[in-house]
Amino acid sequence: MEDAEVDPTKPIPAFYCCYLLRSTKQRTSLYIGSTPHPARRLAQHNGDSKGGARKTAKDDKRPWEMVLLVEGFTSRVAALQFEWAWQNPKMSSQHPANRHQLELGAGDEAQGSSGTQPNAETGKAKHRGRGSRRSLKAHLEDLHLFLRSTYFSKWPLKVRFFNADVYQLWTSWCDRVDSLLPDHVRIILDGDCPKDHLPWEDDSRVQRVDHIKADYSHIHDYVEKSHFLLDDPSDLRCKVCQARIIPSEDLVVVCPQANCYCISHLLCLSSRILDSAREPDQLVPIDGNCPLCDKVIQWSTMMQELSLRSRGCNESRKILRKAKKGRGRTPGAIHETSAADRGSAVEEAGTRAAGVESSTVGVSDSFDMNCSDDASLDENWTESLDIDIEPDLLDRPRTHNTGTSRVEIVIDDSDCDEMEELG
């Protein structure tokens, strides 16, 4: 993957997902892909717009339906890694994901004879008793396995189901397998899936794929708030170490909660959350508690805002211009506070929150603050990729670059025809 060098001026993408397509005419025909814009990609697969993969272009299989999404990837390469592993569960065990798959499969009692075992001579995984890996059931089993693997289980992923029959097959497998998904992996029931199957009220339902917001609109208010708080750096202090913050020199994170004015050094807050987690092998948080308001904050959301602020200046300006126009019509609560009053509010809130200890639910080792794995890859990227993904790709030293010379928000879809799963 040496050709996939990182452009350090790119912010974390607004949205990226892996998806599973199913033909509505030949329901055994399936396709796995990845995209930053699922509605556009589905239209391409169905021939409603230019593009799409060659193997989904046959009229006897169109239209396709997007039955589930795995979302929450923080770069294109992250999604491509998951897509490749999901498409190729029987490939070389030297692939990082498959090494962990074999580790899990060897000790998973629920799989029994259908588990995976490595061949001592070739090092490749052999699936016993499952037959073709192209079935919907097999894809769901592999998905469950990857979400539990040591590598992918550290990512802040969500699985969104649009079809009730697919979700029913998923729950049947979950009831059989002994191992549970990590607590932070969220299941979203959408489309025609039953609403009452989850113990909490889910406000993430969009009903249809074309209603998914694949832009930065979900953090517009957050971006505006951060700009407001950091606009006057005369007396900003970290709520963890109490040292002065210089936004132009320091990596600074802002609490995403609407009414919280907590500002911290990136390393101070991450260290605090990780120390609370007491997991020495975990490197980057998934979520934790704000040291000021004590509410749970999502690390991926803060990293997305930070990357926009430090490497997405053009996009940030667009967001702020929209906010300024919006304030002309409907003033926001945050703008009713002057810069002087803001300092007092922060100080008062800090006094109220003194002594509050932070806690965490999980952590992730897949984040790169500089989006170092968000590379521009052509559609033949797999031709330059050996069966074994280079281990040092994930361990490569990370550097902070807050300067921006070019911003490119549009990210291409994956179109790896040679790796698609079709029945």
TrEMBL record:
| Nuclease keyword on record | yes
Q: Which cofactor does it need?
A: a divalent metal cation
Renumbered residue ranges of the record's region Disordered: 36-59, 107-133, 324-357
Q: Does this UniProt record's set of keywords contain Membrane? A: no
GO CC annotation terms, alphabetical: Slx1-Slx4 complex
Q: Which domain of life is it from?
A: Eukaryota
Q: Which UniProt keywords apply?
A: DNA damage, DNA recombination, DNA repair, Endonuclease, Hydrolase, Metal-binding, Nuclease, Nucleus, Zinc, Zinc-finger
What is the annotated localization of this protein? Nucleus
Q: Please name the GO terms that the record assigns under molecular function.
A: 5'-flap endonuclease activity; crossover junction DNA endonuclease activity; zinc ion binding
Using the record's annotation, list all stretches that form the GIY-YIG domain.
14-99
Which ranges are annotated Polar residues under compositional bias? 111-120
- GO BP term, example: double-strand break repair via homologous recombination
On subunit structure and binding partners, the annotation says: Forms a heterodimer with SLX4.
Q: Which HAMAP family match?
A: Endonuc_su_Slx1
**What does the UniProt record say this protein does?**
Catalytic subunit of the SLX1-SLX4 structure-specific endonuclease that resolves DNA secondary structures generated during DNA repair and recombination. Has endonuclease activity towards branched DNA substrates, introducing single-strand cuts in duplex DNA close to junctions with ss-DNA.
Question: What family is this?
Answer: Belongs to the SLX1 family.
What is the name attached to this protein's record? GIY-YIG domain-containing protein
Species whose genome carries this gene: Aspergillus sclerotiicarbonarius (strain CBS 121057 / IBT 28362)
